UniProtKB/TrEMBL annotation:
Organism: Pelagibacterium nitratireducens
CDD domains: nit (cd07572)
Family: Belongs to the carbon-nitrogen hydrolase superfamily. NIT1/NIT2 family.
Molecular function GO labels: hydrolase activity
Superkingdom classification of source: Bacteria
Lineage: Bacteria, Pseudomonadati, Pseudomonadota, Alphaproteobacteria, Hyphomicrobiales
Alphabetic keyword roster: Hydrolase
The name this protein goes by in its record: Carbon-nitrogen hydrolase family protein
Domain CN hydrolase: 5-253
Length: 291
């Protein structure tokens, strides 16, 4: 008998202050619950989408006695849903922050948390360099949460470009993997859909990607297009552009086993080594090319 799970993604245009963003989350979670969702995912940096380090220092709290966490726990409890905050900034010792995903159960208890592993540090010709590691401390532990009736792998935004993480989550039992994000418009237009579909196909998992969208108070513009991808790589639900809103769909968990049976890439994986030095048979290849 097929088992379907109603889920919702919140697409946001988060601002600089925590209160307004928390109000938005509260309203959207109530809307999602009315639509039947039992699991609700928000984007990366849902609670504060700061302009700079000073903005984070003014708004982001430490993990202990965190006011935003307390309110979010109450929202989960009041609506009786698994509430998954895609990420929020948590102040750490030493002045940096964790980009942390937090999952609450329907009683408002924290059942899992994950710190974004991969940080975007890049020097781009003709543009200013960007050092996410100057502000954030990267995590070092992959996480699969068991939130009956499915196992949930967790990632955040730039993690999407590192397929080994997703394979690790899938082989650890994940049936659904989340990618809460704040993709820029140029990279979103170029890579968002194809990367999410690739991760779904490679792992045989549902991919849930709640996104930031639109022009933000911090001066950034994000791509939106929150979407849900099936284990076969099909987009089964998507937000219309960058406007804030809600995406609701039902996940048929039988589709995970079906996709993995049709293409058993996880089961067929083999260990291998990289040959040192010249490629094997390189001299033969050169001889053939010369004939």
């Amino acid at each position: 008998m097929s088992q379907t799970i109603p889920v919702a993604l919140v697409q946001m245009n988060s601002g600089l202050g925590a209160k307004d963003n928390l109000d938005t989350i509260e309203a959207r979670v109530a809307e999602a619950r009315r639509a039947g969702a039992v699991y609700v995912l928000t984007p990366e940096m849902s609670v504060v989408f700061a302009r700079n380090r000073a903005g984070l220092q003014a708004e982001a709290e430490r993990w202990e006695n965190n006011g935003a966490i307390a309110r979010l726990a109450g929202i989960a409890r009041e609506n009786g849903v698994f509430l998954h905050i895609g990420s929020l900034a948590i102040a750490l010792e030493g002045g940096r922050f964790a980009n942390r995903s937090v999952l609450f159960d329907p009683e408002g208890e924290i059942v899992s948390r994950y710190d974004k592993i991969h940080l975007f540090d890049a020097d781009i010709d003709g543009e200013n360099g960007y050092r996410e590691s100057a502000t954030y401390a990267g995590g070092d532990t992959a996480v699969v949460a068991d939130i009956v009736p499915f196992k949930l792998g967790i990632s955040i935004c730039y993690d999407l470009r590192f397929p080994a993480l997703y394979r690790t989550l899938a082989t650890a039992g994940a049936q659904v993997i989340v990618v809460p994000s704040a993709f820029t418009v140029p990279t979103g237009e170029a890579h968002w859909h194809v990367l999410l579909q690739a991760r779904a196909i490679e792992t045989g998992c549902f991919i849930l990607a709640a996104a930031q969208g639109g022009s933000h108070e911090n001066g950034r513009s994000t791509y939106g297009h929150s979407l849900i991808v099936s284990p076969w790589g099909e987009v089964i639900a998507e937000a219309d552009g960058a406007e804030p809103g809600l995406v609701v769909a039902e996940l048929d968990l039988d589709a995970v086993a079906a996709a993995r049976q049709r293409v058993p890439a996880l089961a067929n994986e083999r260990a291998f080594t990289l040959a040192p030095g010249p490629l094997p048979f390189a001299s033969d290849l050169k001889t053939q090319a010369g004939n």
